[in-house]
Q: What sequence folds into this?
């Protein structure tokens, strides 16, 4: 793993490689069809064995909570806070992809920067998918919206690290048609 880089008053963290899931980075995801409120987003899976990365994330969450006490929550920490670091073993029980991982849902309203290891922009949407490994830059921030309070994760940028099996059950076109014999195409 890459040693986590922490900056921006301790609330911005660069971590990875992490596996991405539920990935919507080239177009906004609007689950209810409300395209005006859609967001770019991905779940970021962090292996539980990555102690240094998890510590950096917990420290960034604490920094965001301290900022929220001052800027959002009237000088004290609310008793009930929604925190972004989730346990895949309990929150996604039975999902083997999330087993032995923590995860967080990172979102943004402006399209994140997406580059390859060579630092060149990635424009082919097929290059970034659920299942790919990446290094991500995220910023944790406090919120207080309609009585809900917590710490959210803003997605800044993504650098592709390596390919892996696609998640979600979709096979590649190459594998679907690997056994199709096109030698007798004159009969068509």
A:
């Amino acid at each position: 793993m890459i040693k986590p880089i922490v900056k921006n008053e301790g609330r911005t963290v660069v971590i990875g490689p992490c596996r991405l899931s539920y990935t919507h980075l080239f177009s906004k995801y609007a689950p209810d069809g409300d395209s005006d409120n859609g967001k770019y987003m991905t779940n970021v899976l962090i292996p539980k064995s990555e102690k240094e990365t998890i510590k950096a994330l917990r420290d960034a969450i604490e920094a965001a909570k301290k900022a929220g006490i001052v800027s959002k929550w009237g000088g004290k920490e609310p008793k009930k806070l929604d925190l972004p670091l989730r346990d895949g073993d309990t929150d996604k029980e039975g999902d083997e992809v999330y087993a032995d991982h923590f995860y967080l849902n990172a979102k943004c309203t402006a399209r994140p920067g997406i580059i390859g290891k060579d630092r060149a922009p990635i424009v082919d949407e097929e290059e970034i998918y659920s299942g790919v490994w990446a290094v991500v830059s995220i910023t944790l921030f406090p919120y207080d919206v309609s009585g809900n309070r917590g710490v959210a994760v803003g997605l800044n940028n993504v650098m592709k690290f390596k390919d892996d099996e696609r998640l979600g059950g979709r096979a590649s076109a190459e594998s679907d048609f690997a056994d199709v014999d096109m030698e007798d195409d004159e009969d068509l």
